What we know:
The protein has about 210 residues and is of the alpha+beta class. About 30% of the residues lie in helices and about 20% in strands. The chain contains six helices and six strands; from the N terminus they run αααβββββαβαα. The strands form two sheets. The protein has a four-stranded antiparallel sheet. A hairpin with a 2-residue loop joins β3 and β4. α1 crosses α6 (about 180-195) and α5 runs antiparallel to α6. The radius of gyration is 20 Å and the shape is globular.
Amino acid sequence: xxxxxxxxxxxxxxxxxxxxxxxxxxxxxxxxxxxxxxxxxxxxxxxxxxxxxxxxxxxxxxxxxxxxxxxxxxxxxxxxxxxxxxxxxxxxxxxxxxxxxxxxxxxxxxxxxxxxxxxxxxxxxxxxxxxxxxxxxxxxxxxxxxxxxxxxxxxxxxxxxxxxxxxxxxxxxxxxxxxxxxxxxxxxxxxxxxxxxxxxxxxxxxx
Length: 207
């Protein structure tokens, strides 16, 4: 990919360099500190749960490449508006990040919306307030969640990563079929690392 490896301080930065050199065809604005602080309050890691279960004649499914799959969706790009009062805004037509009041019915056996409580990430039922991405909220409504919008930032949409994902997923798939573990590992790294580097904190480490 014609990247000087001496300039890549990590494998994630290598993925970013490849993306910028060969796949980036839109400007990605840098959000302001106050906007970053607001959005980061709703930035959660991946959820890991375990359950004791029993089954007969059961099937086991391995869903692969979930990060790349999500990367093919529309991404927030430019800030369109800061809404201080969202009482008259319909979530269906909103795209961005917002502070909301959430109610999850107590009969939901496996709650799916995370919440930070006493320094830990939990998946509660009942009522609470939190900051979330609009597309997450639209999904949980299907499971009985009730959402009241309070305030937030509205964004434009952009397809930023599809070409990159299709390119490396095709390389991963072909490597799997040919049992080329090295090429598969490299392609998988590129698929999984690019997304994370966009979540870096804006503070710089000073040495």
